[in-house]
Amino acid sequence: MRCVHINRRLAVLMIPVVGLFSWPQAGSAQPRAAAAPAAAPQPQRFADGIAAVINKQVITLQQVDAEVNVARKQLKSQNIQVPDDEVLRRQVLQRMITETLVRQEAERLRIEISDQQLQDAVGSVAQRNNMSKEKLRAEIEKTGVAWSYYLDSLRQEMLTDMVRQRAVDSRIVVSDAEVDAFLNSQGRTGNNLLGGVQRGAAAQQTVPRELGLAQILVQVPEGASTQQIQELRAKADSLLARVRGGADFASVAAASSDGPEALEGGNMGVRPTEGWPDLFLRAVSNVATGDVSDIVQSGNGFHILKVTTRGPEPAQPQAANAGVPQPQQEMFAQEGPMMVTQTRARHILIKIDQVTTEERALTRIRDLRQRIVMGEDFAEVARRSSDDASAPEGGDLGWLTPGETVQPFQQAMDALQPGQISEPVLTQFGWHIIQVEERRTRDMEDEFKRMRARQVLFERQAGPAFEDWLSQIRSQAFIDNRLAPRANNNRFNR
């Protein structure tokens, strides 16, 4: 798969105005005094004011307390019962540890979010909420959240997404055989997951195009003993009994779930049905909206799933499908000829990695562009200098269909006339320059079905793959969580 062809959305760009800061950044809120220790052993452990050590980075109690204040406001604004202080601090610290690990991995991969990228994201959020940047800021500050805190949180969301793209998404390969098998299965079952409109009686049998889920996760650590697994299963059984006995699902999730979305009441969002893992789809196939599933076991632990939404895909793009450009969504929603304008293009990529910084990559791509402008052949420069797999073909990407490349690349390419060369373009893969050779219009019905099938299969793998990756980097890190039992810590042998 060509590197620019991985199509992932920035989830942060479609989150509603309230609740935009679902990934708060450690220490970004105004700190308050650390809470007094509640148990006898704690004065010795907390005398230095340290809540956790992740590799060589420290999270202080003051930072945790600042985040606890924000989390408490969030939960109250969502009408979710706030856990007691001790539980809330532990949940907040777990989230901060995950964020710290992601930032450390981003530093290792030399991934940064520039101020311009951040401002572009703010503009996208404002646009999708039909307001100006100034209005967005005013709405955020009305909720009691400082604008600087919101920007830090948005930057963390973007950083997490770029790390996921670089470390996880690039390793997911969907084969042609898998696409063929998926399309055949759709034909056998009569499901309409690819967006074609079914007419007549068949339309009544179409599965919902949109599914919202929340979860309570009881995580099973890697290498857990049989006894530990049994104890954790018993915990999951107890939580399921509480929920089915009338306890509020979101409040139980906030207090007890090990999932990253615990402090959002376990809400994992709304996606097109095909975007959820098969394991989850099977578990909720007969679960009504508002009800919960039986316990589902995965490689990550024990899940209790609540169906929050079932229904048709919305007419306007929402968070779940923000990664698919609107023209492409409309093409998926019809049958018959799909007349599409394609672009044939070349590109040169200079990757950003542990050796090449973003600044060095930009300087190099600018030099290459200047050489081409002065008369050197684009294809020859690409063969000698591009870091992309397309280099031997002179950077030739073939015929590209709208939505086939990542958004910054697509936007820059669409702005060019045949023969023109773009200014440097930054994506998660590095710095590019693009040359458009020609354009054509053709019927893409069959190609779109295959593209959509490939996207469905990719999305089903991406979520579990990212969770596995997070578990892996957590298991390899030195983590001293002083708010958790010592048995839950991972003191990596350095």
From TrEMBL:
<dbReference type="InterPro" id="IPR027304">
    <property type="entry name" value="Trigger_fact/SurA_dom_sf"/>
</dbReference>
<dbReference type="GO" id="GO:0051082">
    <property type="term" value="F:unfolded protein binding"/>
</dbReference>
<dbReference type="InterPro" id="IPR023034">
    <property type="entry name" value="PPIase_SurA"/>
</dbReference>
<dbReference type="GO" id="GO:0006457">
    <property type="term" value="P:protein folding"/>
</dbReference>
<keyword id="KW-0413">Isomerase</keyword>
<dbReference type="InterPro" id="IPR046357">
    <property type="entry name" value="PPIase_dom_sf"/>
</dbReference>
<keyword id="KW-0677">Repeat</keyword>
<protein>
    <recommendedName>
        <fullName>Chaperone SurA</fullName>
        <ecNumber>5.2.1.8</ecNumber>
    </recommendedName>
</protein>
<comment type="function">
    <text>Chaperone involved in the correct folding and assembly of outer membrane proteins. Recognizes specific patterns of aromatic residues and the orientation of their side chains, which are found more frequently in integral outer membrane proteins. May act in both early periplasmic and late outer membrane-associated steps of protein maturation.</text>
</comment>
<dbReference type="InterPro" id="IPR050280">
    <property type="entry name" value="OMP_Chaperone_SurA"/>
</dbReference>
<dbReference type="GO" id="GO:0042277">
    <property type="term" value="F:peptide binding"/>
</dbReference>
<feature type="signal peptide">
    <location>
        <begin position="1"/>
        <end position="28"/>
    </location>
</feature>
<feature type="domain" description="PpiC">
    <location>
        <begin position="208"/>
        <end position="309"/>
    </location>
</feature>
<dbReference type="Pfam" id="PF09312">
    <property type="entry name" value="SurA_N"/>
</dbReference>
<keyword id="KW-0143">Chaperone</keyword>
<dbReference type="GO" id="GO:0050821">
    <property type="term" value="P:protein stabilization"/>
</dbReference>
<feature type="domain" description="PpiC">
    <location>
        <begin position="340"/>
        <end position="438"/>
    </location>
</feature>
<keyword id="KW-0732">Signal</keyword>
<dbReference type="Pfam" id="PF00639">
    <property type="entry name" value="Rotamase"/>
</dbReference>
<dbReference type="InterPro" id="IPR023058">
    <property type="entry name" value="PPIase_PpiC_CS"/>
</dbReference>
<dbReference type="GO" id="GO:0003755">
    <property type="term" value="F:peptidyl-prolyl cis-trans isomerase activity"/>
</dbReference>
<keyword id="KW-0574">Periplasm</keyword>
<keyword id="KW-0697">Rotamase</keyword>
<dbReference type="InterPro" id="IPR000297">
    <property type="entry name" value="PPIase_PpiC"/>
</dbReference>
<dbReference type="GO" id="GO:0043165">
    <property type="term" value="P:Gram-negative-bacterium-type cell outer membrane assembly"/>
</dbReference>
<dbReference type="InterPro" id="IPR015391">
    <property type="entry name" value="SurA_N"/>
</dbReference>
<dbReference type="GO" id="GO:0030288">
    <property type="term" value="C:outer membrane-bounded periplasmic space"/>
</dbReference>
